[in-house]
Design brief:
Elements: E1 2-3, H1 23-26, H2 52-57, H3 60-67, H4 71-85, E2 92-94, E3 100-106, H5 113-116, H6 119-125, E4 131-135, H7 148-153, E5 163-166, H8 169-172, H9 177-184, H10 201-206, H11 215-225, E6 240-243, E7 248-252, H12 262-272, E8 278-282, E9 287-288, E10 291-292, H13 303-308, E11 314-319, E12 325-332, E13 335-342, E14 367-369, H14 372-386, H15 390-393, H16 397-408, E15 410-411, H17 435-438, H18 454-462, H19 485-488, E16 501-508, E17 512-520, E18 532-539
Parallel strand pairs: 1-15, 2-6, 3-4, 4-5, 7-8, 8-11, 11-13
Antiparallel strand pairs: 3-16, 6-7, 9-10, 12-13, 12-14, 16-17, 17-18
Helix pairs in contact: 14-16, 16-18
GO molecular function: hydrolase activity
Organism: Actinomadura viridis
Protein name: Calcineurin-like phosphoesterase domain-containing protein
Length: about 550
């Protein structure tokens, strides 16, 4: 068998358990109410993906995929306006410190409990960091400037440093107007270039135009919530570079459908040149759900080809958009590049139990959060409630873990019965240390986990757990992950623990880059000491 998330990061005696060590560490046994409730406004807007109006405000996603993504043309005009104003050369911000730290949150802005639950643990872990980056979808559902006071300024009022961002597809549903006003101090309402063809009248009529910008309301929100001098920052554009002596951080704007325009492609090649180690932050991940999505560049080439080019010295690529955590250490010649999905910063959770046994990297080197078994258990309870069939659907975490183990043929990340991994089996080092160092051999006389019941196997199949590495057609599956978002998202949101959200802390020194993924359960027990679900240290020399 292979190992799914077989080893937890090393824990100190006073560190909390995590999802790999116990169900309590995963948040299933939540004993104390989270303090994030006290941070929320008295009246929270009724944001729900079940509402037709919310889906209608997101219609530009469908139009862009059917008739062509206009983001490239809009972006070129925005960048030209920024250049005329006198933006920084190469869209580059310089930092002189060799050692620094920053937080990274992906897909944050629903404005409800799932977003606010991330705030206390992130502020706790990031209290001494130098800045924060939001990777994709700052504001749901459509990136309007009117939503920034309650979904950006208020939640992060306690973070003392500046916040930068790369836009996601939802930020583009407003033509990027709200994003540019808040992060780049530019108010520009750019209509898309006219569509061509016999059906061009359809996107012209249906395309959602940007909402108004209330300058006085934005100014009040900024002064009230993030008005300290250390919190204020203006980034040079929707794509940018943070250049430091040890590491160059490159943020790109992937529009609605994941590609970048010709001008941004030329800029990316230029800033990627040279021997300095580099980290890519992107609105769309390059590896996700055991699949490569290389990111097309207008005129030819891909973003991933630039990342893998040995002359560019990329060590990692982190993307949002998918609302969970995944990490793929991928070999590229004689080096390993860490491809990370980090979209658990506040929006509804995308399932991990639908991820097949990995092929792009060895299964024992793959990491995800939530664990596949926890994801299946959470979704089984969700569908049991929605369909009013709890006796059929509801799987305990142990039942779900056994079903995932059975269908995928992997060793689960959290053991039951003794033969699966345990906290005592933790080993220091990187996943590349090899399976022998990471996966403990079963001990003589240990009980083998029970074979899952027929009901558990049926629910696992119905909710999309693949069979091994094969994706079998023929069986009807409920909309968990593969259906378009406008159908599946309404079934994939909840506002009570465990939330299974996450965020990253990145620590940079002259010699190394350390990336840690911290879990957000929503339980008060985990706010002060958030569980560390994964970590990797990358040499920079």
């Amino acid at each position: 068998m292979h190992a799914e998330d077989a080893v937890a990061p090393e824990r100190t005696p006073d560190a909390p358990e995590n999802s790999r060590t116990s169900e309590a560490g995963a948040g299933w046994d939540c004993r104390r109410r989270g303090s994030f409730h006290d941070l929320m406004p008295e009246r929270v807007s009724g944001f729900s993906w079940r509402r037709p109006l919310v889906l209608w405000r997101s219609r530009n996603d469908v139009i862009a995929k059917l008739f062509g993504d206009p983001s490239g043309g809009i972006r070129r005009r925005c960048v030209a306006a920024l250049a005329e104003r006198g933006t920084r050369a190469g869209f580059t911000m310089h930092r002189s410190e060799e050692s620094f730290s920053f937080l990274l949150l992906g897909d944050t802005g629903e404005g409800d409990r799932s977003q606010y639950a991330v705030v206390p643990p992130a502020l706790r872990i990031g209290a001494d960091t130098d800045f924060m980056v939001i990777a994709s979808d700052v504001i749901y559902p459509s990136g309007e400037a009117a939503d920034y006071p309650e979904k950006f300024f208020r939640p992060y009022q306690g973070y003392p440093g500046p916040i930068y961002a790369v836009p996601g597809n939802h930020d583009w549903y407003d033509g990027l107007r709200g994003f540019l006003r808040v992060f780049c101090d530019l108010d520009l309402d750019c209509a898309p270039e006219p569509w061509r063809g016999p059906l061009a009248v359809v996107p012209r009529l249906l395309w959602r135009r940007s909402g108004p910008v209330d300058e006085r309301e934005l100014a009040r929100a900024r002064d009230r919530y993030r008005g300290a001098p250390g919190q204020r920052a203006v980034q040079p554009g929707p794509y940018w570079v943070i250049d430091t002596p040890a590491l160059r951080i490159v943020g790109i704007d992937t529009g609605i459908t994941g590609g970048i325009d010709r001008d941004q492609g030329a800029w990316l090649r230029e800033v990627s040149a040279g021997p300095k180690p580099k980290l890519l932050i992107t609105g769309k991940p390059l590896y996700v759900d055991d699949d490569l999505r290389p990111g097309k560049i207008e005129g030819g080439g891909t973003v991933d080809a630039i990342v893998k080019d040995p002359a560019h010295h990329y060590v990692a690529a982190i993307g949002g958009d998918i609302h969970n955590y995944q990490r793929y250490p991928v070999r590229a010649g004689d080096r390993t590049i860490q491809y990370v999905v980090s979209g658990g910063g506040g929006a509804f959770m995308h399932a991990t139990h639908t991820i097949p046994r990995t092929r792009v990297t060895d299964e024992e080197d793959f990491r995800c959060y939530p664990l596949r078994g926890d994801s299946l258990s959470r979704y089984s309870r969700l569908y049991g409630r929605v369909l009013r069939l709890p006796r059929l659907f509801d799987l305990t975490p142990e039942e779900a873990t056994a079903a995932v183990r059975h269908r995928l043929g992997i060793r689960p990340g959290r053991g039951y019965g003794g033969s699966d991994p345990s906290p005592a089996s933790s080993a220091k080092g990187l996943p590349e240390a090899g399976p022998a160092a990471l996966v403990p051999a079963p001990r003589v006389g240990e009980p083998v986990p029970a074979v899952p019941s027929q009901r558990a196997r049926f629910v696992a199949a119905l909710l999309g757990v693949p069979r091994g590495q094969r994706r079998r057609p023929g069986m009807v599956r409920l909309p968990v992950r593969r259906m378009p978002q406008r159908f599946r998202s309404e079934m994939a949101d909840w506002d009570h623990p465990p939330f299974f959200k996450s965020f990253l802390r990145l620590d940079v020194s002259e010699a190394e880059l350390r990336i840690r993924c911290f879990a957000v359960t929503g339980c008060g027990d985990h706010e002060r000491h958030p569980p560390c679900e994964d970590e990797v240290t990358i040499p920079l020399r």
